[in-house]
């Protein structure tokens, strides 16, 4: 009886586990089909356990002091008139129109499920119930949004935020190595989503954001910038010339945005008074508290500057703030002929044959419609490039100085330089100093999740992706992949949905050789053989099972 009960319990446990992975894989496959990369990788990390803190009371007090100082201290180098040199745009009246019922409905429908609640403890799934039936609740909610829009009386819970800290890298005892994510009220997010949608369409239509910026913009992703870097490296090798790059890291970029200067930037970019007032009312009088891993909260404290990381409007506001800073910096670049001459020119190559004089019969290649490529940006992740280290140093000096005027600070320890060399040329050391900062040279740098190498090869990136894929595999190896009785088709689907996707992240920007393909295929084959438990020493139907698993995996690819 005891043996039978244990067996029954074991079967029930494994069935429950398979049910969980079935739903988990279905979510991954859905996000992969929809092209939701951010949602895919966010969902991929869903079952990771957080690190347990030892002294919750002390940690809460420490975090509260840290964020209170961070979110209320203005930069001593800031100039509130720094945006005066940026482009001025006329106000657009339609941005001030009262939000329509359709806009509110679309904002509610676009809310993501299973998101952490803010201070109002109201989940997104509950707000989505407004869409059911005759939508009477939705009309009531729309009336509240309209009232807030017209009066500017934003509920305090819509302003407040609960800060959850996430570790990045480095020393775990250093507060600066954590990122604070603001959990805000979902009801307020609906209204800000309407504002963000209008403002985003306006910025794209008017061309306010620089072409180099791909962060949080429609129809753009990290792959655009990764492909640009790879293409730049290939052109440098083809032309047998070196390209010098500086990967810039801004210290606490979102938290360092000065709000008074931000309002001035928005006015200069044509944001009308009513919309600007709505954005201001969501930030003025804002409070925050810190929630630790034990579920306890710190005391409330006032927040006087910075953007709320976690708010759907924050990325767009930062892009506009950063765009104003870059406009001022580019105006400084244009004053130096040496800097503009050393910028990388990208254009269309046209071949023509001379017909007169000494050039008769001689083929010449001319670049037409050339544009200067001086930066690759994804939000605050920036890569500055030039064809000479001297010009790169001048550009960085301008960027550090102008960033200081806008209240932003370039991190010297985390900013690194690289020389992208053509084939056959040995690497030579060089230095870049800007405003008293000296940046270290490196032959590899992780930019937007991809390892960029000075030689332009993908060896290190493929090795890195393989290690991450194996780490992802081992996370569920005991519970799914290496379990003999688990459903084979479910294992292959899970393998394809998370492990192979992790292995091939950013592959569209790779420049591969036959050796690279062999290595990737070998890694893929190891995953499949471990999933089905095939071994060369055993004589069974495992080879046939491997072939079936391979076909199934390729179908999913």
Can you walk me through this structure?
The chain has helices spanning 2-33, 37-44, 56-70, 101-109, 124-128, 136-151, 156-159, 186-206, 222-239, 259-268, 273-283, 314-333, 337-341, 389-405, 459-475, 477-481, 488-503, 514-532, 542-556, and strands at residues 161-167, 178-184, 243-248, 287-291, 301-302, 344-353, 363-373, 375-378, 381-386, 416-420, 432-434, 437-441, 444-447, 450-453. With 557 residues, it is of the alpha+beta class. Strands 8-9-3-10-12-11 form a six-stranded mixed sheet.
Q: What are the SSEs and their pairings?
A:
Layout: H1 2-33, H2 37-44, H3 56-70, H4 101-109, H5 124-128, H6 136-151, H7 156-159, E1 161-167, E2 178-184, H8 186-206, H9 222-239, E3 243-248, H10 259-268, H11 273-283, E4 287-291, E5 301-302, H12 314-333, H13 337-341, E6 344-353, E7 363-373, E8 375-378, E9 381-386, H14 389-405, E10 416-420, E11 432-434, E12 437-441, E13 444-447, E14 450-453, H15 459-475, H16 477-481, H17 488-503, H18 514-532, H19 542-556
Parallel strand pairs: 1-4, 10-12
Antiparallel strand pairs: 1-2, 3-9, 3-10, 4-5, 6-7, 8-9, 11-12, 13-14
């Amino acid at each position: 009886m005891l043996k039978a009960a244990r067996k029954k319990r074991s079967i029930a446990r494994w069935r429950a586990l398979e049910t969980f992975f079935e739903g988990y894989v279905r979510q991954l496959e859905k996000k992969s089909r929809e092209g939701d990369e951010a949602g895919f990788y966010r969902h991929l990390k869903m079952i990771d356990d957080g690190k347990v803190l030892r002294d919750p009371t002390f940690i809460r007090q420490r975090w509260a002091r840290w964020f209170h100082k961070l979110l209320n201290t203005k930069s001593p180098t800031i100039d509130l008139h720094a945006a005066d040199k940026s482009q001025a745009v006329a106000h657009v009246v339609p941005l001030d129109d009262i939000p329509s019922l359709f806009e509110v409905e679309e904002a509610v429908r676009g809310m993501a499920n299973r998101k952490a609640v803010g201070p109002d403890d109201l989940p997104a799934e509950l707000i989505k119930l407004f869409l059911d039936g005759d939508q009477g609740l939705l009309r009531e909610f729309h009336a509240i949004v309209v009232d807030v829009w017209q009066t500017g009386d934003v509920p305090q819970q819509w302003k407040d935020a609960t800060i959850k800290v996430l570790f990045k890298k480095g020393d775990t005892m250093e507060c600066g190595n954590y990122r604070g994510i603001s959990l805000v009220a979902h009801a307020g997010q609906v209204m800000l989503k309407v504002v963000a949608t209008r403002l985003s369409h306006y910025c794209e239509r008017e061309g306010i954001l620089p072409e180099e910026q791909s962060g949080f913009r429609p129809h753009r992703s990290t792959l655009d910038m990764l492909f640009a870097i790879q293409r730049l490296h290939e052109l440098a090798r083809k032309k047998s010339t070196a390209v010098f790059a500086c990967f810039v890291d801004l210290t606490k970029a979102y938290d360092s945005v000065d709000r008074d200067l931000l309002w001035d930037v928005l006015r200069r970019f044509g944001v009308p008074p009513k919309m600007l007032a709505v954005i201001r009312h969501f930030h003025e009088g804002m409070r925050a508290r810190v929630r630790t891993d034990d579920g306890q909260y710190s005391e409330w404290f006032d927040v006087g500057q910075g953007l709320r990381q976690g708010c759907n409007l924050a990325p767009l506001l930062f892009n506009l703030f950063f765009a104003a800073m870059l406009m001022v910096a580019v105006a400084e670049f244009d004053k130096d002929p040496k800097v503009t001459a050393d910028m990388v020119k990208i254009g269309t190559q046209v071949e023509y044959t001379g017909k007169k004089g000494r050039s008769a019969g001689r083929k010449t290649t001319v670049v037409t419609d050339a544009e200067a490529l001086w930066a690759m940006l994804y939000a605050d992740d920036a890569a500055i490039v030039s064809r000479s280290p001297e010009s790169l140093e001048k550009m960085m000096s301008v960027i550090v100085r102008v960033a200081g005027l806008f209240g932003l600070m370039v991190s010297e320890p985390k900013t690194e330089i690289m020389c992208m060399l053509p084939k056959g040329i040995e690497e030579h050391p060089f230095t870049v100093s800007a405003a008293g900062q000296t940046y270290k040279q490196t032959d590899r740098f992780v930019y937007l999740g991809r390892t960029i190498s000075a030689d332009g090869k993908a060896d290190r990136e493929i090795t890195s992706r393989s290690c991450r894929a194996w780490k992802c595999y081992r996370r569920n190896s005991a519970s799914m992949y290496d379990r003999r009785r688990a459903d084979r088709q479910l294992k292959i689907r899970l393998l394809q949905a998370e492990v192979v996707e992790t292995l091939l992240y950013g592959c569209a920007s790779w420049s591969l050789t036959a050796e690279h393909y062999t290595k990737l295929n070998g890694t893929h084959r190891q995953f499949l053989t471990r999933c089905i438990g095939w071994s060369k020493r055993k004589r069974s139907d495992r080879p046939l099972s491997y072939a079936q698993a391979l076909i199934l995996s390729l179908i999913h690819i």
